[in-house]
Amino acid sequence: xxxxxxxxxxxxxxxxxxxxxxxxxxxxxxxxxxxxxxxxxxxxxxxxxxxxxxxxxxxxxxxxxxxxxxxxxxxxxxxxxxxxxxxxxxxxxxxxxxxxxxxxxxxxxxxxxxxxxxxxxxxxxxxxxxxxxxxxxxxxxxxxxxxxxxxxxxxxxxxxxxxxxxxxxxxxxxxxxxxxxxxxxxxxxxxxxxxxxxxxxxxxxxxxxxxxxxxxxxxxxxxxxxxxxxxxxxxxxxxxxxxxxxxxxxxxxxxxxxxxxxxxxxxxxxxxxxxxxxxxxxxxxxxxxxxxxxxxxxxxxxxxxxxxxxxxxxxxxxxxxxxxxxxxxxxxxxxxxxxxxxxxxxxxxxxxxxxxxxxxxxxxxxxxxxxxxxxxxxxxxxxxxxxxxxxxxxxxxxxxxxxxxxxxxxxxxxxxxxxxxxxxxxxxxxxxxxxxxxxxxxxxxxxxxxxxxxxxxxxxxxxxxxxxxxxxxxxxxxxxxxxxxxxxxxxxxxxx
Length: 496
Known about the structure:
Layout: E1 20-24, H1 41-52, E2 57-59, H2 88-93, H3 107-124, H4 127-139, H5 141-157, H6 166-169, H7 173-182, H8 184-210, E3 214-219, H9 228-232, E4 247-251, E5 261-266, H10 270-275, H11 279-291, E6 294-297, E7 305-310, E8 320-323, H12 326-336, E9 342-344, H13 352-360, E10 365-368, E11 390-393, H14 402-407, H15 411-420, H16 430-438, E12 443-447, H17 448-451, H18 483-493
Parallel strand pairs: 1-2, 1-12, 2-3, 3-6, 6-9, 10-11, 11-12
Antiparallel strand pairs: 4-5, 4-7, 7-8
């Protein structure tokens, strides 16, 4: 391959050419009065914490509307924001709420409050506010129209889209027109929710950027089956005539699971995407790059080859690899969006072909320190193997906390970790934090759980499981008075 010399496969990456440090924390993990964290005052306080700690990056998981398991990697839209992240506090400040519900605020109470704010807005908004709302509706029409109708129909049908009446399932024009008229008020509410989310998000982004903090987002490679995009664009997904998937996505048995992971997402019809010059991906990443300064492409190896599982299989064991047109896709992406700032999540089964694609695209990969201490000196996650074009982590949202991982090691493995790290006097996880910050990798990301020294009970997600995930939250009482200065000292020490 000679693509490394091709300017169409050479992104700018200006933000990733200097040494930086950041923190991994999903918005839902922020403190607050509702069932999940939101875009209100605690988000701004967290930005201030990053600044005081010398950090310049806030990494966040996908922010789309979640489903019953709250996984941010299974969303009903690749464009929409999660309404649960809307801050009622900020609606009160805008005068669109008379009072805050009493804490703790349930999801139902929050939804009702947002609906009441919508009524107040449509009754009494100023001309400037109405103009801003209409501008948003017009700018986002290319996805918002389908998404709002999809959500309204979901409420009416109480079923997945492939189980709707066949005329709605198959998007017959007359049925859709009748639904838009019948569900007009619900559609208006959904649009207002998205207006609130986007407005609050961009205010937070501006606040962060003005203080030198970059927002680092996450783009899942696959799309949830029960999503507006699959319903509206069935032609680009490998589906049967009745809307069910023929094959589904996942990964083979690996570090996390003996039976692999059967994610269940429908797979792309890459030939159809290519015929349309990958407009689905171009539009998707264009939208995400307005919300974030950097983007992690989840499951990057799926752009070289993906694990195809027959839909009737209950596990991922009986899948097989199918080649994907990653080189062609990224050539188009960088031609259309030349200033994309991307990071490849290159974990899992990484072959020479996957590594060649990553290098051809000049994308930083990921180095996880928790993976480094097995297999001998040639383990690529060991710090002395790191290169500048990498992002080093103590662990990710899919790993145990570093303290939980360390205490779960057997005595021999724990002794090896201690020996490698020089038998430091600091207690874990600070030796691992120090190792990450000292790495040659230009970007070091530390999960907040590690900064707070929390054990495995504070883990965010355990891959291959469906219970007890995605609901971890911190409290400001967990942040010790010396935490900011301690981080700032280390960040300066290692030139970040």
